[in-house]
């Protein structure tokens, strides 16, 4: 038969572990509530900007080569824009670039939507 001290120490340890799990549960729930509140405050904004295509390039990715265009915007900045459809490189032609930005991390992503002018018939 166990002594009273052994049973009491076992129950105390069991109660402390139970309390630890309860505290951990409330911390995780609080983090989920704060995280969902932060996600609800994220705003994504898209703006179309006109620019001139300067050059093209490609990055190596898991799927193979990912092409992009270097576009000089009318405000003077030069950006790297991924094409929405197939990559159509026409140097010194004017095109529309969509700037997608968010207020959370101040991230900006550029997508090349297309050219303003019709392609020349050759």
* CATH superfamily membership of the largest domain: Nucleic acid-binding proteins
Secondary structure class reads alpha+beta
In total, the number of strands is: 5
Instruction: Tell me the Rg in angstroms.
Output: 29 Å
Q: What is the assembly state of the chains in this entry? A: single chain
CATH C-level of the largest domain: Mainly Beta
Strand content: 35-45%
Largest sheet: 5 strands, mixed, barrel
Q: Helix share of residues?
A: 25-40%
Structural shape = rod-shaped
Arithmetic mean pLDDT: 85
Query: SSE order, as H and E?
Result: HEEEEE
Q: How widely separated are the two ends?
A: 100 Å
Strand arrangement across the biggest beta sheet:
1-2-3-5-4
Number of helices: 1
What is the number of domains? 2
CATH topology of the largest domain: OB fold (Dihydrolipoamide Acetyltransferase, E2P)
Which blocks of ≥5 consecutive residues have pLDDT under 50? none
Instruction: Indicate the CATH architecture of the largest domain.
Output: Beta Barrel
What are the defining features of this structure?
122 residues, OB fold (Dihydrolipoamide Acetyltransferase, E2P), 5-stranded mixed barrel
Summarize the structure in words.
- By secondary structure, the chain is of the alpha+beta class.
- It folds into two domains: 1-41; 44-115, OB fold (Dihydrolipoamide Acetyltransferase, E2P).
- It contains one helix and five strands, in the order αβββββ.
- The chain has one helix at 4-40; strands spanning 44-61, 64-73, 78-83, 94-102, 108-115.
- The chain has a five-stranded mixed β-barrel with strand order 1-2-3-5-4.
- The relative contact order is 0.16.
- The mean pLDDT is 85.
């Amino acid at each position: 038969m166990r002594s009273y001290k052994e049973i009491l120490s076992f129950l105390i340890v069991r109660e402390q572990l139970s309390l630890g799990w309860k505290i951990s549960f409330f911390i995780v729930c609080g983090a989920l509530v704060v995280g969902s509140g932060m996600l609800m405050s994220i705003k994504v904004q898209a703006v179309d900007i006109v620019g001139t295509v300067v050059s093209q390039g490609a990055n190596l990715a898991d799927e193979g080569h990912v092409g992009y265009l270097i576009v000089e915007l009318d405000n003077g900045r030069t950006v790297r824009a991924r094409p929405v459809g197939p990559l159509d490189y026409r140097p010194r032609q004017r095109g529309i670039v969509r700037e997608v930005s968010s207020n959370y991390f101040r991230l900006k992503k550029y997508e090349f939507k297309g050219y303003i002018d019709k392609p020349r018939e050759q």
